[in-house]
UniProtKB/TrEMBL annotation:
InterPro entries: ArAA_b-elim_lyase/Thr_aldolase, PyrdxlP-dep_Trfase, PyrdxlP-dep_Trfase_major, PyrdxlP-dep_Trfase_small. Keywords: Pyridoxal phosphate. Residues 77-306 form the Aromatic amino acid beta-eliminating lyase/threonine aldolase domain. This is Threonine aldolase family protein.
């Protein structure tokens, strides 16, 4: 599941890839996309929803500012791709970094390498972590790894849970933030304690940092200090940064050298990747410095949403977490997802305001409860709290 407001996987599921005769489902999807794209007021306008012409124009406009465009294009990871790897390693304070076409591959390789080095193929991670929910059992099916779950609540594991877990594991994987639990983070002190507990068990620590870029405000720490807690870190180059695709794995030079070998074996030694590398470099220059402002504004938006639902008499609702830990959070309401999505589309069509996008049924719990993910980007900085409350009122009116 992914967020249609973030430029991540959910949006990919709603991207317009239709051709020829349309099924009713395809027609409805296209209607949603058209409504969101035409809306004048949005909290974020995901780059992936742009047309090919717009995407290419944006790439060309930003590329000249991040590298010399007269240099040769990359071949099998040199040139601008190597430049991006050096930039990532420096940003995270790591010895080296390797570019991967996908985060799924990057983490497969990292965890496989650590299994070989520790002699233990068991990975401890949260059951809501990305490999367990969104990768079709790839860690076991492809890499021969085994996963165990030291914690089960909608939060990261505690230090005591790591210490008390009743079987050995070679690697502890921490997803920061834990997206499917609501983009939640521990406190800095809790994170330090969890890492220390893993070290006590002679386990290495790997951070799934697909959205690590926006964690600094919550922790009150810069990226190198956060990354230094772990033995390796994966970061996404399109989630948050607005890039085209790709990921990076950072860590000790010897690990990254081994990871490059496995990247080739896994089919990730791509001939040329300069569009993704250029888009990532542009995102690092343009979006990374603005993330603290998005995180701050998300707190304003979340509080105003809660006030708006209460004032509109919406009944039970939940904004989670409150306040948000990053610039993303969940909203829960006691309606079916189709009802809520239709209200969101109608609001965009009738008023030009797109507050919410697609809604989803809860994976567990009582029927008739749905949630959506909200992301605040540059467009969201223009909203006042009153703007949000007014938009919530308009949304609730369309639920009747």
């Amino acid at each position: 599941m992914t967020d249609t407001t973030t430029g991540t996987d959910e949006q990919a599921r709603d991207a317009d890839g239709t051709a020829g005769p349309q099924s009713p489902e395809e027609a409805q999807r296209l209607r949603r996309i058209n409504a969101w794209q035409a809306a004048e007021r949005v909290l974020i306008r995901p780059p992936m929803n742009l047309s090919l012409r717009e995407r290419l124009a944006a790439l060309t406009a930003g590329a000249g500012a991040v590298t010399d465009l007269d240099r040769p294009a990359d071949i099998y990871g040199d040139g601008v791709v190597a430049e991006l790897e050096e930039r990532i390693a420096d940003l995270l304070g790591m010895e080296a970094a390797a570019f991967f076409p996908t985060g799924t591959m990057a983490q497969q390789v990292a965890l496989r390498c650590w299994a070989g080095r520790t002699g233990n193929a068991t990975v401890a991670l949260h059951p809501l972590a990305h490999p367990e929910v969104h990768e079709r059992g790839a860690l076991g099916a492809v890499s021969g790894l085994r996963t165990v779950h030291p914690a089960h609540g909608p939060r990261l594991p505690t230090a005591q849970e790591i210490r008390d877990f009743d079987e050995p594991f070679g690697t502890l994987m921490l997803e920061l933030p834990l997206r499917d639990a609501g983009f939640v983070l521990p406190t800095w002190e809790e994170l330090e304690a969890v890492v220390a507990a893993a070290r006590e068990r002679d386990a290495v620590v790997h951070i799934d940092g697909a959205r690590l870029w926006e964690c600094s405000p919550h922790f009150g720490r810069e990226l190198p200090e956060i990354a230094a807690l772990a033995d390796s870190v994966y970061v996404s180059l399109y989630k948050t940064l607005g890039g085209i695709s790709g990921a990076a794995l950072a860590g000790p030079a010897s690990l990254i050298e081994e990871a490059r070998t496995w990247r080739h074996r896994y089919g990730g030694q791509v001939f040329q990747q300069f569009p993704a590398a250029l888009a990532a470099l542009t995102g690092l220059d343009q979006e990374l410095p603005r993330l603290p402002s998005y995180v701050a504004q998300a707190k304003v938006v979340a509080q105003a949403m809660a006030e708006g639902f209460a004032a509109a008499g919406a009944g039970w609702f939940r904004v989670h977490p409150e306040p948000p830990h990053t610039h993303q959070f969940q909203v829960w309401l006691p309606y079916g997802p189709d009802v809520l999505t239709e209200a969101a589309v109608r609001q965009a069509e009738e008023t030009g305001v797109s507050l919410f996008r697609k809604w989803y049924p809860a994976a567990a719990g009582p029927p008739g409860v749905s949630f959506t993910e909200v992301t605040v980007g540059p467009e969201g900085l223009e909203w006042t709290a009153e703007d949000v409350r007014d938009a919530v009122r308009g949304f609730v009116e369309r639920l009747g």
